């Protein structure tokens, strides 16, 4: 039974996505929705994110939408440190504010501003220790920031009975192709 899941992956710029209305965002959100619905069948109650741009904020938007049909579904934003969005542009800060406003729980691992990379590592460790599973959207073919978390995840799984779902671009592409095909059939 999976009650809590941490959903993470690429930041938007690591996928060369710079606009919320990019077609890729629609497909990624549909994929995340599909995965969350599968987990809801397994007893999912909480989705956790650290509030990073990209996969994590899109996940929060998906959860907000899903809460209309699944009011029991909750999400938490647990950031590594206070003020992690200070250097973001105004649009992204507004988007983040909206997400935290709708969140069921918001906190920071360190109740202080950025002090060093150890804060990110500590936040990742917290996520592993406080969730039943991680859904990681990451492909070895396109290394980026999630590679450090992936290594920590693999090490953690070797020592515990923790589970993960690492989504590759092949799995995403297959889902998108199926979705496009089914959408084409409607017309």
From TrEMBL:
InterPro entries for this protein: YspA
Superkingdom of this protein's organism: Bacteria
Pfam families registered for this protein in UniProt: YpsA
Alphabetical list of NCBIfam families matching this protein: PRK13660.1
Family statement drawn from the similarity comment of this UniProt entry: Belongs to the UPF0398 family.
Annotated PANTHER family: UPF0398 PROTEIN SPR0331, UPF0398 PROTEIN YPSA
UniProt cross-references to HAMAP family, sorted A to Z: UPF0398
Name of this protein: UPF0398 protein SS7213T_12192
Species name: Staphylococcus simiae CCM 7213 = CCUG 51256
